[in-house]
Amino acid sequence: MKLSLPAGLVRQSLAGHSWLGVLTGALMYLICLSGTIAVFYQELERWEQPQIAESLGYDAATLERAYAQVPASDITHHMFISLPTEEIPRTSISTEKTGWFVNTDGSLGQEVKHEWTHLIINLHLYLHLPETFGLILVGVLGALLCGLIVSGILAHPRIFKDAFALRLGGSRLLEQADIHNRLSVWSLPFQLMIAITGAFFGLAQLMVLLLSYVYTDGDTEALMARVYGAEPKLEQAAQPLAIGKALAAMKTIAPGATPFYITVEEADVPEKRFMIVGAEHPGRLIYAEQYRFDSAGNYLDNVGFSDGETGQQAIFSVYRLHFGHFASFSVKVLYGVLGLAMTIVCVTGFNIWLARRKHRDHWNNLWAGFVWGTVPALALSGIAQVIFGTAATAVLWIGIAAATALAQWWNDERLAKQRFEFAATGSIVVLIVAYTVKFGAAAFSSLALTVNATLAAIAITFAYAATRRGRLISASRSTPADLSEGRT
């Protein structure tokens, strides 16, 4: 298939596509890489605390006893009860500050600690910037990604006709362009879906502000109430939370739905307190329908994400669609593969810009350090957080900064790539070994073994790539006329 487009439009699209890619390449790389990992956040949360007993069973009376044991000083405006699911077969109670796993006797167990997983998620959602600003920035980047996809199609009229043309091992420019274009074509629907849903997440706050002037005369709270349901006006005496009664009622109210969380709203104001039971509806993309109950467990209403207006249902379907949390685990794996493809597209796009300049300078060094140094920096942050319990956000960014500085000092991007590949191998191996030593027998549970085996496979891949790159560097130095930078 060849698009028939005016030559002028093609040139303008190519120029726009190139500059958009250059301006957003580094941040897009971090977002795509962290998003690929974040698809598996449920598995990573369990991996961070493999010693926690797991079970799909729970007792409502046990939940009530556990909730009653939360110290009054720890009660916050919102409280959260996570019910066990196939993905995370653990029960926990959390405040806005901390959380505990629930023991079978209703006592509060170990604290919930998922900081490294949250580091990955927050990198994807906010780029570790202040949340509001970071979310908007990521949303803008999602919108720009839509522009990159459209301009990329317009800039390459033969992009679909050449869908299987892959020229490896020759000119660096042709090699990178072919990898970039082929992966872009093969994952085009996925990339467009991720770009649109990502833009929605990030720009939702701005959309609320704009839409409020259209539908509610600028009243954002009224608009949010129309979408997410207005808070019920309650007059009730302070009393223990009737969690069991609410869960029992769910069997009649929504017999086909599966409750998987409870949010206690106005938890610090007993007279206004009410519960939201979030329930998954099989075969639906919506994250959950929300069923609301007062403190005594009396049913109030449902918000309407399962049977309300089309817009409501669409809004609550964005999450599962964006992260691939629907259907079977194989969908997550597919998202992981396609997310990795998007990450490679980001890297090769910038590589094309570097190759077209036909000279090298500090940009070549800094890009090599940034891209290839991020992986060992992530592994080091995992060691700091999971093994030693040290806040690891600074470790990650210091590691990335150090990698770019080292690459500039070495002034040889081929050598920098090789050294960072070895660094990735070593840091991942250290993480696996230290994890096994720290958690002992728990490190050999099926989930922990699966994650560690995946990490080991990644380490082996980097070791192979580094060894191969070393041979090519040696060959190019001994016979520079026969082997160019494009082969490394």
UniProtKB/TrEMBL annotation:
The keyword Cell membrane does not apply. Keywords: Membrane, Transmembrane, Transmembrane helix. This is Putative iron-regulated membrane protein. The chain crosses the membrane at residues 20-41, 133-155, 192-215, 333-354, 366-388, 394-410, 422-441, 447-467. It comes from Povalibacter uvarum. InterPro entries: PepSY-ass_TM. It comes from the Bacteria.
